[in-house]
Amino acid sequence: MAASHAARPARPVHRLALWALALAVALTLAGFAGRWAGDAAMSKAQLAGEQRLDTYAVSLENLLSKYDFLPRTLELNKDVLALLQHPGDEALRGEVNTYLEQLNRQSGSTTIYIVNLQGVTQAASNWRSPNSFVGDNVAFRPYVRDALRGKPGGFYGVGTTSGEPGYFFAHGIYRDGRMLGVATVKVNIERLEQGWMQSADKVLLADAYGVVFLSSVPEWKYHTLAPLPPAALRELAASRQYFSHELTPLDMRTLRQMNGGTATVALPQAGDVAVLSQSRSLAPRQWRFVYLSDLSGARNSARAAFVFALLLQALLLMLVLYGLQRRRARADLQRANDELELKVAERTASLHQMAQDLRQAQSGLVQAGKMAVLGQMAAGITHELNQPLTALRTMADNARVLIERGRLDEAKSNLGTVSQLVGRMGVLTGQLRQFARKADTSLTAVPVAAAITAALFLVERRVEQERVNFRMAVRDQHVHALCDSNRLEQVLVNLFTNALDAMADCATRQLTVSVERDGAWALVGVADTGPGIPAEILTHLFEPFFTTKPQGKGLGLGLAISEQIVREFGGELRAEVTAAGGARFVIALPLVEQETI
Ligand code: ADP
């Protein structure tokens, strides 16, 4: 049964284990929720990063392609060709310098210059400025070298003269299929950085070696994504691509490598927390865009989801516990109620049974008592009837003789006595019949004095025979009690008989019956001058079958039945010892007021 199962207390160790398990499950679920939310935020960041990378790559390409053609157009300028053929012509140099200066201004590039086959600058747009390139040997610069070898190219580097970074476009200048020199255009692409700095995210542009040359974080510039091998360092130093910058690594640690160029990384220079790194290679220059997205938003939403899931589970747990508690309390209450009802039902049933048993026992006792009294009285009654019968026969015989002798008056008198005797016998048998009848319970107003007289009639012979002095002390002849006359007589007969029995061996034998009022009670006293009742007997007096009389003489039922009868009337029977030492029984009966009769 569920209730008994719930009522059994779990062992503390079990309960602890259960809680630990619940906590583990809750933490795991919350962990999943946090992971899920974190992943969702991460893929959102990833998508945004891809888009940013696309935008940046396109804008870079746009910028560079704008200048791609510029070096080649210089081939079309006759003065440029002439200068390369006649390097000593200063007037021509002046022409070309001015031309380059104008072209540079119009195209928005940083510098334009012409280099001869030896790598010496012949003319430059910045010819007026103190760090004019004119006369510089730039043969060591890779883009110049490549272009001189017939490989036009692009190159990002920091200018060796100006110290300013820029993208260098270089292209050979040919005439009739013969190379005369190289045209170079330097473009400032650092302005791209301005756009990158606006967002919280970070953008890096690194070259094929992994050297960061554009960055939304200025401090990261001219550092490498990873430590460079010595050969690469040597190469870079030779080309002076990054001039005098020391190319130390950024210490970027990869935390989790994901698909393609995506990973989570940590940088000591950026708080050393995980950031999302996405990179994109830009052919043909072999550059690499790196986009670092701030993941604090993702972390926050993961944390929020974790806490939320935990709270939700705690709430659910509380709800479940509350429900269980309520159910248990209800079950307890129901059980207590059921038990109580059962107990009440049991008690009621046993009370009913007891009442029934009592009634049965009582009515049995009353009936048995009557039989006992009847038995006891049978001898007396036989005796009582025998005497008048003998007298009747004698008188009848006498009457016949008297009639035969003609003494009619005497015969008439004899017959009168016969008639009287027969009448008296009739009364006696009537009383007996009445006594034997099972009492009905209807109570009426009974004249107490008359009941005493009727009872006395039944013991009259014994009173006379044993020479008992009988005294009626009735102050009020009209006292009526609410009872049943037959049964009151039965009680009185019993008390009289007991009194006569008690006084059998006494010198003085006086039986006193009194009637008096006491408030709402009619008190009937039956006192004798017998030996009285010792205290130890007094307490057992009304118990059934309690008797001190020899066997066959008394059943010990008389007082028990009498007491019961009086109680049925709503009255009380009690015993006491008189001042003279005899016994006195008092029947208290409900008094019926005179007016109501
Ligand atoms: P029984 O008369 O059959 O013994 P009762 O119930 O009438 O039964 O009486 C119980 C006992 O009470 C008697 O045996 C007797 O010892 C005592 N008793 C009753 N009436 C008197 C009395 N008037 N004086 C002394 N003892 C009495």
TrEMBL record:
**CDD domains registered for this protein in UniProt:** HisKA
Q: Which InterPro entries match?
A: HATPase_C_sf, HATPase_dom, His_kinase_dom, HisK_dim/P_dom, HisK_dim/P_sf, Sensor-like_sf, Sig_transdc_His_kin-like_C, Sig_transdc_His_kinase_DctB
- Histidine kinase domain residues are 380-593
Spell out where the chain crosses the membrane: 304-324
UniProt xrefs under PROSITE patterns: HIS_KIN
Q: Which Gene3D superfamilies match?
A: 1.10.287.130, Histidine kinase-like ATPase, C-terminal domain, PAS domain
Look up and give the membrane topology term: Multi-pass membrane protein
> May I ask which residue range the UniProt record assigns to the signal sequence?
none
Q: EC number(s) for this protein?
A: 2.7.13.3
Q: What protein name applies here?
A: C4-dicarboxylate transport sensor protein DctB
What is the protein's species of origin?
Answer: Duganella sacchari
